[in-house]
Amino acid sequence: MTIDRTLAKAYEPHDVEKRWYAAWESQGCFHAELNNGKPSYSIVIPPPNVTGALHMGHALNNTLQDILCRWKRMQGYNVLWMPGTDHAGIATQNVVERQLAAAGQDRHDLGREDFIKRVWQWKAESGGQIIGQLKRLGASCDWERERFTMDAGLSTAVRTVFVKLYEDGLIYRANRLINWCPRCHTALSDIEVEHEDAKGHLWHIRYPVVGVPGRFIIVATTRPETMLGDTAVAVHPEDERYADLVGQHVRLPLIDREIPVIADAYVDGAFGTGVVKITPAHDFNDFEVGQRHGLDQINILDESGNINAAGRQYEGMERFAARTKIVADLDALGLLEKIDEHALSIGGCYRCKTVVEPYLSLQWYVKTGPLAERALAAVRAGETRILPEQWEKNYYEWMENIHDWCISRQIWWGHRIPAWYCDHCGAVTVAMDEPAHCCQCGSDELRQETDVLDTWFSSALWPFSTMGWPEKTAELAAFYPTSCLVTGFDILFFWVARMMMTGLHFMDKVPFKEVYIHALVRDAHGQKMSKSKGNVIDPLVIIDEYGADAFRFTLTAFAAMGRDIKLATERIAGYRAFANKLWNAARFTLMNLEGFTPAHEGLSGLTLSLPDQWILKRLSQTAEQVNVALVEYKFNEVASLLYAFTWNDFCDWYIELVKDDLYGSDAVAKLRAQTVLYTVLEALLRLLHPLMPFITEEIWQSLPGTRPTSTIMYAPYPDGGGYIFDAASAAQMEQIMEVIRAIRNIRGEMDVNPGRQISVVFDCRNEGDLAVTRVGERYIRTLARVKEQLGAINVARPEQVATQVAGGIEILVPLAGLIDVAAEIERLGKEIAKVRKDVEMFEKKLGNEAFVARAPAEVLEKDRAKLSDATEKLAILNASLAKIQELKPSR
Question: pTM for the full model?
Answer without folding.
Answer: 0.86
